[in-house]
């Protein structure tokens, strides 16, 4: 992690450690906006990470439905759509005997 990444994530980490715990959870998205911003900066670098983090904050508003929104892969601007697991995806066979 380079120095610019550390400088950009330091205020977000401060918010996560000292300010956020004083308020009840209210983010409409998973992961939270601050976690998303830190991850975006680490994955995409400072410029694109800040753009993605800012766009995420703008989308987190009372009129947004929210939901699962992960950081996109390197080279992409939008993440793969989240597909909720179904009962068929869960292995129900037990190996305990």
Automatic annotation (TrEMBL):
> Organism source for this protein?
Gleimia coleocanis DSM 15436
Q: Where would you say this protein principally sits, based on its record? A: membrane
Task: Please list which residues make up the signal peptide.
Answer: none
Its subcellular locations are: Cell membrane
Which cellular component terms (GO) are annotated to the entry? plasma membrane
List the HAMAP family. Answer: UPF0161_YidD (MF_00386)
The entry's keywords: Cell membrane, Membrane
Can you tell me which family this protein belongs to? Belongs to the UPF0161 family.
NCBIfam families according to UniProt = membrane protein insertion efficiency factor YidD
Q: Which InterPro entries match?
A: Membr_insert_effic_factor_YidD
Q: Name one Pfam family in it.
A: YidD
Official protein name in the record: Putative membrane protein insertion efficiency factor
Q: What topology does it adopt in the membrane?
A: Peripheral membrane protein
